[in-house]
Write a structure and sequence with these properties.
It comes from Mycolicibacterium hodleri. The protein is of the alpha/beta class. It is built from 11 helices and 7 strands. It starts with 6 loop residues before the first strand and ends with a helix. The structure holds NADP nicotinamide-adenine-dinucleotide phosphate (NAP).
């Protein structure tokens, strides 16, 4: 008989960076990881293959999550194929892309996150998980300074987090748990390399407070929020100075 894994997990933006690492850390014979990507089918397929090579199950699903029709089609396809979704990792994010219009950050980092959560809840069992991935720069916005050029993205990600908190009653009625995982700048990522070019002092200033968390460490915290019993509402990774003076 066709083996249906116990846990179906969708990771948005899993074709590279933190999402790709999360997908790979989820590799397990009892988990099916759905690797969502926007454009790069080959990269997404390589990540799915890496999950399978590690003994897990995985498939890829293309959707620009900021596009309502794409997002709806993705969720319908999951419903048809698996009949349920046990965990939704809201990792995909953006707004710093060249040529992005001024409304794009809000459409992606707020509206798309809320829409995916709304579409996911009816497919989730009791103890389903929604994990929202964010940065300290966004989580603490506007109370802390952000690097030059990052305010619009920080504001939109903060708005996405607030929009999810506004759905708490919906989550709790369905028995779904929301965990926000917030990280300091994560060493070696494209975003930090980009910020390094735009505002080198901001990156240097973060390093003064100690070693920046790694992709492995940050992804581990995200994966734990999916797999551990009774996950906390919020998990902070790195940036202890933010927390002391928050
Ligand atoms: N990097 C850091 O220092 C840091 C720190 C704290 C928190 N975080 C958070 O961690 C998460 C991942 O960050 P990252 O550094 O890994 O980002 P990244 O390297 O920019 O990767 C973003 C991923 O999201 C996908 N994506 C972007 N727009 C999309 C859309 N409209 N629809 C579907 N997928 C889309 C990208 O796909 P394509 O390849 O097709 O573009 C890519 O797979 C974000 O929520 C970020 O805020 C990052």
């Amino acid at each position: 008989m066709h083996h249906v894994p116990e846990r179906i997990v969708l990771v948005t933006g899993a074709s590279r960076g933190i999402g790709a690492e999360v997908a790979q850390q989820l590799a397990d014979p009892n988990t099916h990881v759905i690797v969502n990507y926007r454009e790069k089918a080959k990269r997404a397929e390589d990540i799915a293959q890496a999950v399978r090579d590690a003994g897990g199950h995985a498939s890829t699903l293309r959707a620009d999550i900021s596009d309502e029709a794409d997002a709806t089609a993705m969720m319908e396809s999951i419903e048809t194929r698996y009949g349920r979704l046990d965990a939704l990792v809201l990792n995909a994010s953006g707004g710093l892309e060249m040529g992005a219009d001024p409304g794009y950050a809000m459409r992606l980092n707020r509206d798309a996150q809320r829409r995916l959560a709304q579409l996911a809840v009816p497919m989730m069992p009791v103890d389903g998980r929604i994990v929202f991935v964010t940065s300290h720069q966004a989580h603490f916005f506007p109370n802390k300074a952000v690097p030059k050029g990052y305010s619009a993205v920080a504001a939109s990600k903060r708005a996405g987090e607030t929009a999810l908190y506004a759905m708490r009653a919906v989550f709790s009625r369905a028995g779904v748990r929301l965990t926000v995982v917030s990280g300091d700048m994560i060493d070696g990522t494209i975003i930090v390399r980009l910020l390094q070019r735009r505002d080198p002092d901001a990156v240097k200033a973060r390093r003064v407070h100690g070693t920046l968390p790694t992709v492995t460490e940050f992804s581990g915290a995200i994966v734990s929020s999916v797999t551990m019993p009774s996950p906390p509402g919020i998990v902070y990774v790195g940036g202890a100075d933010y927390l002391m003076t928050a």
